[in-house]
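re: that chain from earlier
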Amino acid sequence: MRLLTTIGVVAALVCTPALAQGISKGVGSFPVTESPATPGVTPLPPPEEPGGLRKGLLASDPASIQQVMLAEGYQARLTTSNGGNPLITGKISRTEYWVYFLDCQDGQNCKGVQFHSGYIVDRPIDAAEMNEFNGRYRYIRAWLSDEGHPRMQMDLLMRDDGMGPETFATYLDLWRQLVSIWEEQLGV
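^ sequence. v structure.
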């Protein structure tokens, strides 16, 4: 019985997508990306602050997330969604994007964020093209809306200990790079 329990725990850890992709609750995590200019190059994790801990950004503090985005040079307008949750809007290159705050209670105490962009293109896009893009790039998902318009999303869990500002900035840069690649692929 003990052997089966051990095997079950190991299987759960191996099969957990977040662990398999190198993401923890945020502290000390960083994305593993392959830059189009330098294939195979993995960025180093951001340095830890003295004492071994970083000040974590939390989805429950939208203004701090907006401030990091502004400090990194991104457009970031903090507003409220139709559902009453915080919402950050901006534009990268030719793409408007939205940062939705997720798992909120009455517009407060949010647990995560979702970067989202949508496109209207002059050519047909099919699921095979979406699948090919999803197969090449981690941390992002491309899909088609009910109307057949391409969408791109990236979710970040930002609760408990939060995510270090440097790690968040790394994810912002990853989003920027993938938006640029996506624009080129779609021809927008």
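Residues 135 and 141 are 9 Å apart (CA to CA).
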